[in-house]
Structures are given as C-alpha cells and as structure tokens.
Write a structure and sequence with these properties.
single chain; 325 residues; elongated; six-stranded parallel beta sheet; alpha/beta
C-alpha cells in the first residue's frame, strides 16, 4: 500500500516499471481515491471555495474559469459560493456564507469587485488561507495582503489617451460601480490622462454593470452635441451607449467615438466593432489560485501583485471628431 500511495501522489522514488504495474492495476480495478479519507490522513483538503456575487458578467466568469483550470491542473476541486448582493451587501448573509465556506475546509478565493465581495474578504477568519481578487489598490498594499489585481488605472489612462490623440477635445466617461472607494482606479486613470493633456474633465456618469446602464447614460450624453468621445467602464456599458446613440441618430464613429473596457468576446463582432482595453481575467484567476496554492502547500510566500498588463485594442468604433483633418 505504501508503494501504491507513492504512485498516486506522484512521489519520485518509484521505479518506472513498478509505477506502470500499479497504474495498470488501478485502471483494471477502476480504483478511485477517497478524497475525504485523504484529507483525514494528511490533514489537508485539496479543495478551494470561490466566493463571488456574480458568475455571469465577463470579468467574473473569466476569473472563475482561470481558477478552475489552475486548480484542476493541481488536482484540486473548486466550489463556488454566490454571495447575496441584492440591495447591497447584507452583512449577516455575507458572514454566514463565509462561515459555510470556512467549514468546508481548504482555502478561499474572494472576488471582491463589489460591496458584497469586499465585505466577505474582510470577514474571512484570520486562520483561513485566503486570496482576494481586488480592484487596483490606491497604494501598494503591504506584504501581508494576499491580493491580485489587474492594472485598471493604466488601462483607462491608455484608452483615454488614444481618444484624445484622435483629436477629441475631451473624453466623457460612463463608470462601473466601485467596490472600495468613491473614485475607482478606472476613473482615476481617465482623470489623469485628461489632466496631462490639459483637457476639460466632464462629470463622470455612474452606470451599472450591464447594457441598460450604458443605454440610459448614452441617451443623456446624446443630447449634448459637444460630446464626441465616450469611454465606458466595461464593454456591456459601451454596447448600451452605442444603441442609445443609434436611436438618437448620432453615428459611431462619425459623430461620436466609443471605447469600452475588458475586450469581452462580443466586442469584436458589434457594428461597428468596439475599440476596447483587453485585460487577462483568466490569467488573473490562474494567478489567484497559484498564490493560494503556494500558501496551502507551504511552498511560496504571500506576495500581493498586479497580474496583467492592459492592451489597447483599436477597432472601428473610434475615430477623429467631425471636421477634424
């Protein structure tokens, strides 16, 4: 049984011929290892739980995909706990969900892009291994913060600079909700680019996560003929903005340029195709699991870090303003 255990756990001190015989026997008998017994024997549960308030929006879903891919490669199982987010972050409901996740054993990954996620990350017991997927921090966190993030500030900065470089006097902004502070990293990047260019800073419109919020903001912006460029906090908002501009008779990009954020799969197939900023959310999920795996296996220190470098993807929805040579 000791040799079988070594084979199953990929221990190096087994002769290849012996390993082949054991694997053949496993295949013939249809043997499956009992994960509960393994956890009791080793004191470790090869499982992680992901807490998130959303599993359908592109960024959330892609992070989940990356976590699952990395966990599967490491022979870990993944459970998902969906946080109740209707009407805000109900503290009692969120705390109860965190307790259930802690009772399951293993480690925890919290996607903290909204109030419910932020609440959950703060409610995790100190003795439970956890990694947070967070907004770009306002300042670099200390080494005891097991966080990963994408550089949203730089992404918004580059997108705004692109629109300004086409000749637009300024860029209007439709923002996604911020989870941790009044001004999100995406808003900060937009403001920084305008300030450096000496461009006026319009009032940012607060949208939601979906196309409906973009549509409402687009109808408002369409009333102002001075609006020639709009940056949206995600691609779904941009989809709603483009629809609103179409309904009000304003052409894209002839009269108004529109840029999105995230490079969701549908962005390349809109009419016009959407200029956007690509972020590697799947890679972010893989990095979150890798950080947690290092803690669980005691093979790597905690090291909070930014994961992906944003990539501007220029498509048909952005161009020079009307009359610009």
């Amino acid at each position: 049984y000791q040799t079988v255990s070594r084979v199953i756990n990929d221990h190096p001190s087994v002769k290849p011929s012996t390993r082949d015989r054991v694997l053949a026997a496993i295949d013939e008998l249809g043997f499956r290892r009992n994960s509960t017994a393994l956890a009791l024997a080793s004191g470790r549960t090869r499982a992680v739980t992901v807490l998130t308030s959303n599993t359908t929006h592109y960024g959330y879903a892609s992070i989940l995909q990356g976590i699952e891919e990395a966990a599967r490669a490491a022979a870990y199982t993944v459970g998902v706990g969906v946080l109740e987010s209707t009407g805000g972050a109900d503290e009692a409901a969120v705390d109860a969900q965190v307790r259930r996740a802690a009772d399951a054993g293993g480690g925890l990954i919290v996607i903290a892009y909204d109030p419910a996620g932020v609440r959950a990350l703060g409610a995790v017991p100190a003795d439970l291994p956890v990694v947070g997927v967070v907004e770009t921090p306002a300042t670099p966190p200390g080494g005891d913060r097991p966080w990963v993030w994408t550089d949203d500030r730089e992404a918004a900065y580059e997108a705004t600079r692109h629109l300004l470089s086409l000749g637009h006097e300024t860029v209007h902004y439709v923002a996604i909700p911020s989870s941790t502070r009044r001004t999100s990293a995406r808003t900060t990047g937009w403001q920084q680019a305008l300030k450096e260019a000496g461009a006026p800073e319009p009032r940012a419109l607060q949208g939601s996560w979906g196309p409906a919020g973009g549509h409402a903001a687009g109808l408002e912006l369409a009333k102002d003929t001075a609006v020639t460029a709009i940056l949206c906090g995600n691609d779904d908002l941009a989809l709603g903005v483009i629809r609103a501009l179409h309904e009000t008779g304003r052409t894209v990009p002839g009269e108004v340029s529109v840029a999105g954020f995230d490079d969701a799969p549908h962005s390349a197939y809109l009419t016009p195709s959407l200029t956007t900023v690509r972020l590697d959310f799947t890679g972010l999920g893989r990095s979150a699991f890798a950080l947690l795996h290092g803690v669980l296996e005691e093979s790597a220190p905690i090291a909070p870090h930014s994961v992906s470098v944003p990539e501007l993807v220029v498509r048909e929805s952005s161009g020079p303003p009307p009359g610009h040579a």
